[in-house]
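Why run this: before we spend reagent on co-expression, it is cheaper to look at a predicted model of the complex and decide which construct boundaries make sense. The entries below are exactly what would go into the expression plan.
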Amino acid sequence: MNQAAIIFQDVNYSAEGLHIIKNITGFFPEGKITTLVGPSGAGKSTLFKLCNGLHSPDSGEILIKGKPIDTYNPIELRRRVGIALQSATMIKGSVLENLELPLTLQEKTIDKEYAEELLHDVGLAGDFLKRNAMDLSGGQKQKLSIARTLVNKPDILLLDEITSSLDRVSQHDIEELIEKINKKYGTTMIWITHNLEQALRIGHFTWVMMNGELIESGESSILENPQDERVKQFVKGEIE
Amino acid sequence: MTYLTLSLTLIFVLIPIILSRTLKLGLEKDTLIATVRSIIQLLAVGYVLQYVFEADNIIFILLMVLLMIGAATQNARRKGDSIRGITWKLFVTFVFIEVLTQSILLGFNIVPPTPQYIIPISGMVIGNSMVLGILFLNRFTAEVESRQDETELILTLGGTPRQAIHTQLITSIKSSTIPTIESQKTIGLVQLPGMMSGQIIAGADPVQAVQFQLLILFLLLTTAVVTSIMLGFLSYPTLFNKRMQFLKLKS
Ligand SMILES: Nc1ncnc2c1ncn2[C@@H]1O[C@H](COP(=O)(O)OP(=O)(O)OP(=O)(O)O)[C@@H](O)[C@H]1O
Ligand SMILES: [Mg+2]
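The model came back. C-alpha cells follow.
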C-alpha cells in the first residue's frame, strides 16, 4: 500500500437511537478497487454516506486523502467523493436532465457529445437522452446513475450495489468500465456488492462488514480463505 | 335581531345533529363543541370590540392584534411541529404580514385609522395568513418526507441545501397559494363573499360593499403569497445543519 484514500479511526455513528457504525478502524487504499461486502443492514450504505459527508460520525475521525473530513467544504468534498446511490434515484425529467444534474447544480450545461459518450460508456444508446427518466427500468436507472456520478469526475468513487438489477452481460460491461476508469484516471473505487464472486473478481482489496463492525479487511483473497468464524459462515451463504 | 330569533337559529344546529345521530356519522360531539365555542367566542369578541371601539385607544388595538397573532400562531404551529422553531417563525410571519398590510392601508390613506377598520381587517389578514400557513406546512412537510431520496441525491452530487429542497419548496408555495388565486376568478359568480353579504344585509350600498370586498380580496392575495414564501424560506434552513447535512423532520 502506498497511500490511503480514506482512513477510518474509531468511527462510531448512530441514528435514531440505533448504533449503526461501531468503532470502525480501517482504510481504503488509494487508486485501488476495494469491494465492500456484508449482510443486509450491516451498515455499508451508511458507511458511504459518512465518506462523503452526508452524515458525520458521533466520534472518531475520517481522513480523506490525509486530511480530516471536516476540513473540506461539504460541496467540494461531495464532488470529489462521488456516490452512485443504491436507490439509483432519478429526478423528474428526461435522461439528459438527470445526466446533466451535477452540472446544473453548478449552473453549467453538459456538452451533447460528452453526454452521448457517457451513455455509451454505461451501455445506453444515445437516443435515450430525450426519454423520461422515471420510465426507465431498474437496470437502466442504475446505468444512468453511474454515468451521472461520473459527470463530477470524482477522485474517489463509491458504488452502492450498482449492478444488482443488471443482466450478466451488462454487469460485465459495467465491471469493465469501472476497471477502465480505475486504470486510466487512478480513481479510487469502493464497491458495495452482494455478489461475492464479483467482489473477488473485481476487488484488489476487500472489507467485510457485519452488524456495524468491520470484521475483516485485506487483499480480496480473504474471501477465499477467511479467518473469522462469522465471515466463514457468511461466505458459505449461511448468514444473509 | 333579538335574542329570541337568534336562539331560533339553533334549528340549523339541530338538523346536522339529528342527521348525524340517525346515520351514525359520529359528528354530534364535534358539532356541539363547535356550536358552543362559536357562541362563546363570538359573543366575547363582540363585547370586547364594543369596548375597544368606544375606548379608541392605540394600546387596545395593539393588544387585540397581538391576541389574534398569538391565537393564529397557536393554531398553526401544530401542523408544523415537525419543523424546528416553527412557533417563532409563524409569529414573525404573521407580524410581518400585519405590519406590511397595515402600513400600506394606513400609509396611503386607503382606510381611516380607526379601530372599526383596523381590527376587522387585521382579523381577516391574520386569519387568512394562518390558513395559508397551515396549507403550506401541511404540503411542505409531506413533500419533504416523501422526497427525501431526491434531497439526498442532490446533496450527494454536490448541491446546496437550497437546491436540494427547491422542488419541494416551490411545489408547496404554489399549491398553497393556488386556491386563493383560483377562488378569486369565480368570485361573485357562484357565491357572494361573506363579508360583502354581511354588509349588504346590514343595509350598505352594494357597490360600496363591492369596493370594500375588492380591497380585501387584493389584500388577501398579498397575504397568501407573502405568507407561503416567507414561511418557506424561514423553514427550509432548519432541515439542514452547518455541514449541509439533511436532518430528518422531528417526529
Ligand atoms: N437514517 C436512518 N435512520 C435510522 N436507521 C437507519 C438509517 N439509515 C440506516 N439505518 C439502519 O442502519 C442499518 C444499516 O443500514 P445500511 O443501509 O447502511 O445497511 P446496508 O449494509 O447498506 O444494507 P443493504 O445491504 O441491505 O443495503 C440498518 O439497520 C438500517 O435500518
Ligand atoms: Mg445498502
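The radius of gyration of chain B is 21 Å. Chain B has a mean pLDDT of 92. Bring this page to Monday's planning discussion.
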